[in-house]
Amino acid sequence: MMINNGAHIIFGTGPVGLAVMHELKRRGVQDIRMVNRSGRVQGADRGDIQVIGGDASDAFQTAHICQGASVVYHCAQPGYMNWPKQFPTLTNAIMQGAAAANAKLVYADNLYMYGHVDGPITESLPHKAKGHKGVTRAVMAKQLLDAHKAGKVRTAIGRASDFFGPGVLQSFMGERVFGFALKGKPADVLGHIDMPHTYTYIEDFARGLVTLGQEDRALGEAWHIPSAETVTTRQLLSLLFQEIGSEPKIRATSAKIVSLMSLFSPIMKEMKEIMYEFEQPFVVDHSKFTNAFGPMQTTSHQEAIRRTLSWYRSVVK
Description:
CATH class of the domain at 7-165 and 198-229 and 283-299: Alpha Beta
Pfam families: Epimerase
Number of helices: 11
CATH superfamily of the domain at 7-165 and 198-229 and 283-299: NAD(P)-binding Rossmann-like Domain
Largest sheet: 7 strands, parallel
Strand content: 15-25%
Oligomer: single chain
CATH architecture of the domain at 7-165 and 198-229 and 283-299: 3-Layer(aba) Sandwich
CATH topology of the domain at 7-165 and 198-229 and 283-299: Rossmann fold
Order of helices and strands: EHEEHEHEHEEHEEEHEEHEHHHH
Shape: globular
Strand order of the largest sheet: 3-2-1-4-5-6-11
Domain NAD-dependent epimerase/dehydratase: 12-218
Protein name: SDR family oxidoreductase
Structural class: alpha/beta
InterPro entries: Epimerase_deHydtase, Lipid_A_modif_metabolic_enz, NAD(P)-bd_dom_sf
Radius of gyration: 19 Å
């Protein structure tokens, strides 16, 4: 596969941005620049990775940072409770930076915009989200695709389900699952754990995003990034405790409890909006991606859990 000449710019240095950086390195990309406010990134402190300090919500700064770019990866996001106020401005500024450089823009998205769905989740579904996080995601996706149609920027959107993996702490399958389990505490999850639920390993998410960045056929559309086979949350947790070598300990918080707690907890109010994901089957269809670009080698759940536990053991005390 051809590697785009020019710089590959990654806005956002959280777990998704770092995973994209590692995937670009794996594919032989030489000029990689990561962008955050501090200009420092743990895990990207090698001489072959440039880390730039800047405000990604400032279009003047993003235009300067993106000079010479061939592909821009939008992996940045504000705090979970600040999406409606800050996310659209951030996305617009990154879009303007990519447009100024005539670079491809690959946006790392999730699935909130679809809202409550009966049956497999496909890219052709309407955006019916009612909560503010889902509406915000829908508005940004429309803005990006409309800009592509208008010839302002070449863009592709890659969407993943709830993800986990090295570096992932703030996730439904993050520290309160892997970190707690390693400490002998019950894994803390949401909803009905015997419902099928697609989970995405973060390295697979990055692999798919970089593929979109290298495929002109991806432009102008949204794509579901391939994940390993859909299993129930209980099955995934069973693999986790099996790898640790202990009996499963699981604490599942029901929608009713989340609703009650949302009355006095802002974060639980945020959780309430997306509880439908964990109360019914949540199965993501990625056949559009594989039909267009061929089968993507996804990481088995067992191997993904093994790698994730290795990372948690190395950094979480």
